[in-house]
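Human:
Class, as today's exercise, you are to examine the entry below, and be ready to discuss the fold:
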Amino acid sequence: MSFSDLFDSEFKQRNKGHFSAIVRVALADGIVHPEEKNFLDKLASRLEISETEYEEILNDPLKYPINPPYLHVQRLERLYDLTRMVHVDHHLEDQQEVMLRKLGIALGFTPSNVNYIIAKALSLVDKKVDADTFVYEMQHMHK
């Protein structure tokens, strides 16, 4: 196995773990709503999750380990990616903030400040800032 194959394999496993965590969030209330299903479909495509893997994860989201971001910067980077995906998917409309709050809590942001964080994240993504600007602004939003 070459080094690049090892990297690709680890990257795919991390994506499966990340997708599995998001499926768990969507299933937290016992059902996957149509808006959440549409989001999961698009997310699976972006994370290069095959249809077989997708069905496997939906049926048993506990099968893949969660790889939560340890560093605050990594959480912000994932939040940036997820916020952009949710923001682009206008099918969610009013549900976009609800979905992002769930995802924000799953990423490790506290329930007491997740509303403020999501509002700021949506505001920045609406302005079409790049990832570096997003992370900087999120890190300095209380200053």
